[in-house]
Amino acid sequence: MNTTARFLSIAAVAAFASFGAYADEADGSQFATQFETNRTRAEVAAEASTVAQTRSIEPAGSRVTTYQSTADRSAVRAQAAEAVRTGQIPSGELG
């Protein structure tokens, strides 16, 4: 019986304490934002259409360009081997 009374008293205190969290106007007027503007609806619509026409749907830097090489595979391999021999390209473990 003592446990039940304690539980109910704690629940009552918690319920009364939570009413303070909702201490605001019931209509939610604190979220309403008022704007004062001197632009007409037509001006805003014209600006929005201009932005939409000049905007690209492709993210910047995502275009991949293809490159057609004219070099021969054996010539490129020979140049790479020569660069390793002369020390222009590091090879193996450096330590």
Structural write-up:
The chain has 95 residues and is mainly alpha-helical. Helix content is 47%, strand content 0%. The radius of gyration is 36 Å and the shape is flat. The N and C termini lie far apart (78 Å). The mean pLDDT is 78.
Short characterization:
The chain has 95 residues and is an all-alpha fold. The protein has helices at 2-18, 41-54, 73-86.
How are the SSEs ordered, and which strands pair?
Blueprint lengths: L1 H17 L22 H14 L18 H14 L9
Low-confidence stretches: none
Quaternary state of this entry equals single chain
Please give the alpha-carbon distance between the first and last residues. 78 Å
Number of DSSP strand runs: 0
Q: What order do the SSEs take from the amino end to the carboxyl end, as H and E?
A: HHH
Q: Strand count, sense and closure of the main sheet?
A: none
Amount of helix: 40-55%
Count of runs of 4 or more consecutive helical residues: 3
Strand content: under 5%
- Given the C-alpha coordinates, what overall shape results? flat
What gyration radius follows from the Cα positions, in whole Å?
36 Å
List keywords for this structure.
95 residues; mainly alpha; flat
